[in-house]
Write the structure tokens for this entry.
Amino acid sequence: MGEEPRSVEVAGHRLVCPICGADRFTQGRSLLNTRGLTFLRLDWANREADNYICASCGHILWFLPSPEGQAI
């Protein structure tokens, strides 16, 4: 993850870690695997989620894209 931690806004609200109260995060993306698509070897077709990892304690916050296909 070579990026610098930064402050993040989600749906117009500044993101704060619910565990330690810090406000600096690095961003990642994760596949949300399902048994059916994995069985068919189509993992690439699964949905993705945005992750924000607290730079202070490592707690991970997960967000699904909005229904319009844009990140929240």
Observations:
- Strands lie at 9-10, 13-14, 25-31, 48-54, 60-63.
- The chain has a mean pLDDT of 78.
